[in-house]
Amino acid sequence: MTLHEDEIPVDETLVRSLLKAQRPEWADLPLSPAGAGTDNTMYRLGGDLLVRLPRTAEKGQSVRKEQEWLPRLVPFLACPIPEVVHAGTPTDVFPLTWSVHRWIDGVEAGPDTVRDWAAFGADLAAVVRELHSIDLMGATRAEGLNWYRGGGLGPCDQWIAGCLDDCRTTVGSELDVDSLEQLWRAALALPEPSGPHVWLHGDLKPTNLLVREGKLHAVIDFGGLSVGFPDAEHSTLWDLPPQARQAYWDTLSLDDPTWARARAWAIAVGVSGISYYWNTFPSFVAECRARLRAILLDAAAR
C-alpha cells in the first residue's frame, strides 16, 4: 500500500537483499510482514528481530534519529523500548537508512487486551513523567529533534484551518467540525507554554503501546522523538477510554490550559490525518474519526 508520492516500494525480496549485504547471518531467517504505519514498513525476522524500513527519505531521518538516541534513552526508562541491534545503511536498491530492532513481545492496547483502563492510564502517565525527566544530554530543538508537535499551536493554524475545511467536505455530516474548530481556536487564544523543553515520544497512540497480561508493557515507535513543550505528548489520550484519560490527568496533575492545548493537538492530528490519507489509508482515517468523536463527547461532558 503506497501512501506518499515519493515512497520507495519494499517487499520481502528487497529486505532479504539488504540482510544478505549487511547481516548475512540473518539473511535466511524466516521473514514475515509485521505491520505498516504511515512512516515505516516492518517485517518480523526470525523469532526475536524486527526489520524497520522508512517509506520515504523524510521518514529515513526519523530512523537515523532512533539509531542515535534510543540507546542513550534506554538506561533511564523502566519500561521497555526498542533496542537497535543493527543500523542499516543505504544501498543501491534501498537508498535510505533502515534498522533491525530486538523484537518485543506484546499486543496492541485495546478493549480486548487491557485489563484495567484506569491503571493503564496511570502507568502510561508514569512512563511519560519518566521520559520527560530525562536530561536532554545536550539535545536541543534542532537537527531532527524539532518535530512540529513540540512547538506552539500558532504556526500550524493556517495548515489546520485548511484541514478543517477538508473535513467539512468529507466527514462534515458525521462530525461537528465547527465545534472542533472552536476548541482549536480557544486553545490558540491561550498563552503559549512557557515551561522547559523535555524529551517527547510524540505519538503515544494505542498501536505504539504494547500490553502483556493486561498491563502496559512497552512503548514502541520513537520516530516522532523530539525535544519541546510537553502539551502535544498528551494528545493521544483521546484514543483511550475516559477512565484512562482521567487517571492520566490525575497522575500528572495537568492544569486546564495544558489539557486544552493537548486537546487542540489531538484535533490537529485527527483532521490532518483525514485530510492527507482520505483516499489512501482508510484504517488510519477511521482512527482519526474515532479520536475526533471522542474529543467532542469529552468536551460536551465537561
UniProtKB/TrEMBL annotation:
One of its GO terms (molecular function) is transferase activity. The keyword Metal-binding does not apply. It comes from the Bacteria. InterPro entries: AGP_Transferase (IPR051678), Aminoglycoside_PTrfase (IPR002575), Kinase-like_dom_sf (IPR011009). Keywords: Transferase. Its EC number is 2.7.-.-. Residues 32-265 form the Aminoglycoside phosphotransferase domain. CDD domains: APH_ChoK_like_1. It is an enzyme of class 2 (transferase). This is Aminoglycoside phosphotransferase family protein.
